[in-house]
Amino acid sequence: MRHGKKFNHLGRQTAHRKAMLANMACSLIEHKRINTTVAKAKALKQFVEPLVTKSKEDTTHNRRIVFSKLRQKEAVTELFREVATKVGDRPGGYTRIIKLGNRLGDNADMAMIELVDYNEIYNAGKKAKKTTRRSRRGGSKPAVAVPVETNASNEEE
Question: I need a labelling partner for 124 at 20 to 30 A (CA). Which of 115, 134, 149, 153 fits?
Fold first, then answer.
């Protein structure tokens, strides 16, 4: 029985699944975005986000924990140096999944998973953050120009 077991096995044995997620995570850290199926992207998000959280505090213990999951020294180095400094102030949600439609060959749902802080298109307008609130009454209406009436006595002079 599988009562309460909500982990997606992705049609693979345990060792194959762990190796695949480790390789996909290393590719995501290296390239900052990858294309995959929606199910693998969701599984990868659950796999990567705790590792990025660990990388925010650079200790030997955290490096060893992350290395035991990723199994590539270059990916661990890049995660702790570049990615951790970029996401240092973010409390969570380091990845974004964007659905791309269906794959041509087998009609599988495809998605792009990316690290949030590395997308310049979405983050272009979010650098300057406003802290003011606008009311719903529309207090900032444009002023209407009122014609100024002239005195008849001034025109005659």
Answer: 134
pTM: 0.77
Residue 109: both structure tokens together: 């749902």
Domain limits of the chain?
14-121
**SS3 state of residue 97:** strand
**Where does the chain have alpha helices with state H?**
14-31, 38-55, 60-70, 73-78, 84-86, 120-123, 152-156
Give the strands of the sheet with 109-115, arranged side by side. 33-37, 109-115, 95-102
Q: Which residues contact 88 (CB under 8 A, 6 or more apart)?
A: 56
Question: Which class is domain 14-121?
Answer: alpha beta
Note the pLDDT tens digit of each residue in 65-79.
Answer: 999 999 999 999 999
Facing residues of 35 across strands? Answer: 112
Per-residue pLDDT at 151: 62
